[in-house]
Design a protein that fits this description.
The protein is of the alpha+beta class and 456 residues long. The chain is built from 19 helices and six strands.
């Protein structure tokens, strides 16, 4: 195993991913800045935010510092792309992106969680040791070869995402093409593809196609004879997802990582072929070759024998977290798509359509009851997410309790939300008779105040 992990391979694929990663990082941060900060005002220091448990202390900067922070993040993404002060830029970006991620639980997306992990992994990879500003400034940094592990960790993480995503799809709703039937039918107005999307067979094709692709694609990617066909299937799958569901950078990120299953030198071979056809590219590559001709390569700690044990231990920890954490929903009774206990960080992607309606009721010290006006506290996305997520309902109940307590009143807080999961009849999500002001959320313990799904 040690010989495999540390055998030398071409650095070209890792450089390709660094460029793609920097471009996608820039796009995602820009989207968060425009969409969440400017349009939704989600990072207002005076606003209410749903916090991740254990990270309640994370707060946004007051203006204009939040805007300055986003501008700096965009600059760091570009630094990663071109490989300028790479390790410092990657380190600062990883902390900054995770800081954005932790601001608001209502913004949770699987790709954002994956991107947080990739950010920290990229810090330790020698992705700047070729075709970078750092190498141009200091040619001794150039390395044509890197140890296998420093590239393999990326498609390895993606393999887990694919495979666990496939396992999660083996459930009764998905096998009946739910919730795809509902989502695709709602897109029947799309130009050209609308009439196709509203057909029931399309939902079944996408459901079973997605299940098979997620479950098996890694095995076909590992096989040289089937790799190109598997990659074509991945490309088709993600292009369709992007066109139909508009799910941000995830399709592009997935394709970029999946490309790493090809031989490590594929970007170099491609550039060499293009250089033969385009004189300007040939002239540019010759400049690089001249620049690096007499450079003496600096040591690469990622390949040093003294670090091998620690590197293998670090890889084992990262893989263990990703292999074990998605199974934690088995610690809880009930349907995870309903209770949400163990749903996050588990690659359970696009498996449920949930809608809810109802209100929060506050019981005052004199026994009278009144509805709480969430419209004044939450934005549209927060309201939509909160109605279907028990942990968010509880956090809101605690905020309301503390709000009244600050005014000298001890109140009881009840949630009366009826929720529909994947087209099933609506039912209460949390027990409307339980005072949520007195309840607590436990990371690895079931919440008795969540009402089980009726079919169970």
């Amino acid at each position: 195993m040690k010989e495999l992990l540390f055998r030398p391979i071409d650095i070209a694929s890792l450089v390709f991913f660094r460029i793609a990663f920097g471009a996608l990082a820039f796009a995602d941060v820009l989207a968060s800045y425009i969409g969440y900060h400017l349009l939704q005002d989600s990072y207002n220091v005076d606003g209410f935010r749903f916090k991740y448990y254990a990270f309640e202390w994370v707060e946004p900067f007051p203006e204009p510092f939040m805007t300055i922070f986003f501008i700096l993040m965009l600059g760091l993404a570009l630094c990663i792309l071109v490989g300028f002060r790479y390790q410092l830029s990657a380190s600062l970006f990883a902390v900054g992106f995770t800081y954005i991620f932790l601001q608001e639980k209502a913004h949770y997306l699987n790709h954002a969680y994956l991107f947080c992990w990739l950010c920290f992994v990229m810090i330790f990879l020698p992705a700047h040791r070729a075709f970078s500003v750092d190498v141009w400034r200091k040619p001794a940094l150039y390395r044509r070869e890197i140890p296998f592990w420093s590239m393999a960790i990326l498609p390895g993480l993606m393999a887990i995402v694919y495979f666990y995503g496939g396992i999660a799809k083996i459930n009764p709703d998905w096998l009946q093409a739910m919730p795809l039937k509902r989502w695709l039918a709602a897109k029947s107005h799309y130009f050209l593809i609308g009439p196709i999307l509203e057909q029931e067979f399309t939902a079944y094709f996408m459901a079973y196609g997605g299940l098979l692709l997620d479950s098996l694609v890694v095995f076909f990617l590992l096989n040289k004879r089937t790799r190109i066909w598997a990659f074509a299937a991945v490309l088709f799958f993600h292009v369709v997802n992007h066109l139909v569901f508009a799910i941000g950078i995830f399709p592009f990120l997935s394709v970029a990582i999946t490309a790493l299953y090809f031989p490590p030198n594929f970007p170099r071979v491609l550039v060499e072929k293009l250089s033969q056809r385009f004189g300007i590219l040939r002239k540019y590559t010759q400049k690089w070759e001249t620049r690096l001709a007499n450079a003496t390569p600096a040591p690469l700690w990622q390949a040093a024998p003294a670090y091998r044990t620690r590197i293998m231990a670090g890889l084992a920890v990262v893989l263990a977290i990703h292999l074990l954490l998605p199974w934690r929903h088995l610690l809880y009774p009930g349907n995870v798509a309903w209770t949400e206990e163990g749903h996050r960080y588990s690659w359970r992607m696009m498996l449920r359509s949930k809608s809810g309606s109802g209100y929060i009721e506050v019981q005052l010290p004199d026994g009278t009851k009144e509805p709480y006006k969430t419209l004044q506290l939450l934005n549209k996305r927060q309201r939509r997410k909160m109605k279907t997520h028990p942990d968010m309902i509880l956090q809101l109940a605690h905020h309301i309790r503390d709000e009244y307590r600050a005014n000298g009143e001890e109140v009881a807080v009840f949630a009366r939300y009826r929720v529909r999961l994947n087209g099933k009849p609506k039912q209460f999500l949390v027990d409307p008779s339980v005072d949520l002001a007195k309840e607590t959320w436990h990371m690895f313990e079931a919440s008795s105040w969540i009402i089980p799904l009726a079919e169970e």
